[in-house]
Specification:
Elements: H1 2-22, E1 28-29, E2 35-36, H2 72-84, E3 92-99, E4 110-119, E5 122-133, E6 139-145, E7 150-155, E8 164-166, E9 169-173, E10 179-189, E11 191-198, E12 209-214, E13 224-227, E14 233-239, E15 243-249, E16 256-261, E17 267-273, E18 278-286, E19 296-301, E20 312-315, E21 322-328, E22 331-338, E23 345-346, E24 350-352, E25 357-361, E26 365-372, E27 382-388, E28 405-410, E29 417-423, E30 426-435, E31 441-444, E32 447-451, E33 460-466, E34 468-476, E35 486-491, E36 497-504, E37 510-516, E38 521-526, E39 533-537, E40 545-549, E41 553-558, E42 571-577, E43 582-588, E44 594-598, E45 601-609, E46 625-633, E47 638-642
Parallel strand pairs: 3-10, 11-17, 18-25, 26-33, 34-40, 41-47
Antiparallel strand pairs: 1-2, 3-6, 4-5, 4-7, 7-9, 8-10, 11-14, 12-13, 12-15, 15-16, 18-21, 19-20, 19-22, 22-23, 22-24, 26-29, 27-28, 27-30, 30-31, 30-32, 31-33, 34-37, 35-36, 35-38, 38-39, 41-44, 42-43, 42-45, 45-46
Length: 643
């Protein structure tokens, strides 16, 4: 169940990133990924007198634009040019071998490495990849790989011999200037799946969308999709012979997901019977009884042991405010309504089928902002960074993805004022920056403001001061430099990342970040295979800051069929460090797999009943520990524990 929530959250996070990159200047958005284009510029009223400007602190300037993705050919040209100029840009390489099941080489086959990006429990390809063709000895050598992230190594399906597949190698971590050998990709007979999609009356369903992908750690870019024919028939060839996740979606029917085992060289035949969909109707109106323009409604199902269908969506009739949500199944749903200029209205969980639902939308609020210098005089032009905090349940065991930014530019005609509306109800973090004399950056200490429905928050004054630069080094436990380590700066009183507050160490382990505010910060460093480290930086400190990353260990968890039974309640796998009782949640028993970069020491590994689990009568179950182990993690060691 937690895995499903993480999938939904992770997929929304990916969609938000894409939307943000495509937003026009002057646009902002909320955590649901909806575009909110504010009215930007001086407030259309007589400005109120500014209060006395309190001493402020600096904040970094606008983040640099993200570089465009290059093709492999363009990347080769860039590397050649930098080498000719005497500039060293250390990259990495991945090597390996493709063989048949008898160990003989498989020449002339295409191999591709993808850089992967994690969203929740799913990893998707970023679009950064490189290709190679195996030689006579079956070996491949892929060069000029960026030394960051983790990579997947896969056999290109269109070049594989008929009826043969090779399981990809996932989670390959590369290091600058080094070559990583992933071993052998072994060709084996592929599996096949044939099936029929039927309705409640056993009649075939035509044009149903059928998709399949490996059930264990699914990768979105290896999903196979097709539509059923007039007989409701579908067939997939060339599949990996593992457990496959099958998802069937058809108009007028409730979606269904199942897992099927595939055997090498065999055809698995299966019938999928879909139940007819249910509907939920209602109305959406504003506080004055009018129908908001462009209103829309979304229904999210209550999480269950089964795979829930995607959220149902419907437009609202502009004349009557009526809506009708289709494609629902039996059970409770939470229904939300949205419209431009209004805050989101959300119902409690309602049964389906059920009575008509009536939702009321309230106008959104706004922000009135003044940007001044140390003497209280208006500053223009300036850049304003707006972040909305996500209001959602968190605990010591789980955390939602970090909120996001929108950056708004104001020119010299703004008079140092910004008026942003409408904004949905919630808590906002505001940052401001501007260019000072002699190319110096001016920044303001962040402000946290609460926005309410239909109200403008009190005037926010952001005072710009000179920025600072912080430097440091990242070392290993032997005092040696760690190149390529990721360094990030966060506000000490909030988990928020600063604009431009991320970098990587150079070949000597050194790093430097400029344009930072004179407020307390947290510095964090990460490097593959090592335990992350962090330290506090006071408002007056500039460094150098030294962080030591020690070699970490890893832990793999295997959950047996006793706890994975068909009717078993949902369980969580929890790891608690005994030295400070810090708890880490790996996930439910379906997704439980591996922890990496753990600090050496003693841990308590527990199999616990999921906190929000319900019994067959929808009554909350009490949390309970069902099994427990004490384990010791050693530096550089890989430990496996089974329940």
């Amino acid at each position: 169940m937690k895995r499903l929530a993480a999938i939904g959250i992770g997929a929304a996070a990916l969609a938000l990133t894409l939307v943000w990159l495509l937003l026009p200047d002057g646009a902002t958005f909320d955590e649901a990924g909806l575009d909110i284009t504010p009215t930007v510029g001086p407030r259309p009223t007589v400005p109120r007198p500014l209060p006395e400007a309190a001493p402020g602190a600096a904040l970094p300037g606008a983040p640099a634009a993200a570089p465009a993705r290059l093709s492999p050919e363009d990347t080769d040209a860039v590397h050649a040019a930098t080498r000719a100029a005497g500039v060293q840009r250390p990259t990495a390489a991945i090597t390996g071998r493709v063989v048949h099941s008898d160990g003989s080489p498989a020449p002339g086959l295409g191999v591709r490495v993808w850089e992967m990006f994690d969203i929740g429990v799913i990893a998707v390809a970023t679009g950064s990849y490189r290709d190679a063709v195996t030689g006579e000895d079956g070996r491949f050598h892929i060069k000029h790989i960026a030394a960051a992230g983790d990579w997947d190594v896969r056999l290109q399906r269109d070049t594989a011999p008929a009826g043969l597949v090779a399981e990809p190698v996932s989670g390959v971590v590369v290091r600058p200037g080094e070559s990583t050998d992933v071993g052998e990709l072994v060709l084996q007979p592929s599996g096949s799946m044939e099936g029929w999609v039927l309705g409640p009356d056993r009649r075939p369903i035509q044009a149903a969308r059928v998709s399949t992908q490996p059930a264990d750690v699914p990768r979105l870019d290896v999903e196979r999709v097709q539509q059923t024919d007039a007989d409701g028939h579908f067939v997939f060839d060339g599949l990996l012979p593992v457990r496959a996740r099958l998802v069937v979606i058809a108009d007028g029917y409730i979606s269904r997901a199942e897992e099927l085992p595939l055997a090498p060289g065999e055809i698995t035949r299966h019938e999928v019977e879909l139940q007819s969909e249910l509907t939920l109707s209602g109305t959406v109106r504003g506080a004055d009884g009018s129908v908001p323009t462009d209103a829309a409604v979304t229904a999210v199902p209550h999480a269950t042991d089964d795979v829930p269908p995607p959220p149902a969506q419907a437009d609202v009739d502009p004349d009557t405010g009526a809506f009708s949500l289709r494609g629902l199944r039996h059970g409770p749903y939470r229904v939300s309504a949205r419209a431009t200029g209004y805050g989101k209205a959300t119902s409690p969980e309602v049964p389906v089928p059920g009575d008509e639902l009536h939702l009321q939308l309230l106008p959104e609020g706004g922000l009135d902002i003044a940007v001044v210098d140390g003497g209280g005089q208006p500053v223009a032009p300036f850049t304003l960074h707006v972040r909305r905090r996500v209001s959602a349940w968190t605990s010591a065991l789980t955390a939602l993805p970090e909120p996001h930014f929108a950056s708004l530019e104001y020119d010299e005609h703004s008079g140092g004022r910004a008026w942003i509306a409408p904004l949905r109800r919630g808590t906002y973090e505001l940052f401001a920056s501007a260019e000072g004399g002699n190319g110096n950056t001016l920044t303001a200490a962040p402000a946290v403001i609460e926005v309410r429905d239909g109200e403008t928050a009190p005037l926010v004054v952001l005072t710009l001061m000179a920025a600072r630069t912080i430097t440091g080094r990242v070392l290993d436990e032997d005092g040696q430099a760690l190149p390529g380590a990721r360094v990030e700066l966060l506000l000490a009183e909030s988990p928020a990342h600063l604009p431009g507050g991320r970098t990587h160490t150079d070949a000597t382990g050194r790093w430097e970040i400029t344009g930072l505010p004179r407020v307390p910060l947290d510095v964090r460093a990460h490097s593959p295979g090592r335990v992350p480290a962090r330290t506090a930086v006071h408002s007056h400190e500039t460094g150098p800051i030294t962080l030591v990353l020690v070699t970490g260990g890893s832990l793999a968890v295997v959950v047996g069929e006793d706890f994975r039974g068909e009717h078993a309640p949902p369980y969580d796998v929890v790891l608690t460090r005994l030295s400070d009782e810090r708890a880490l949640l790996l996930g439910d028993v379906v997704s439980a797999g591996r922890w990496t970069d753990l600090a050496p020491g003693d841990y308590r590994l527990s199999l616990q009943l999921t906190l929000e689990a319900l019994d067959e009568n929808d009554t909350p179950l009490e949390a309970d520990t069902l099994a427990e182990r004490i384990v010791r993690i050693a530096a550089g060691a890989e430990l496996e524990v089974a329940f």
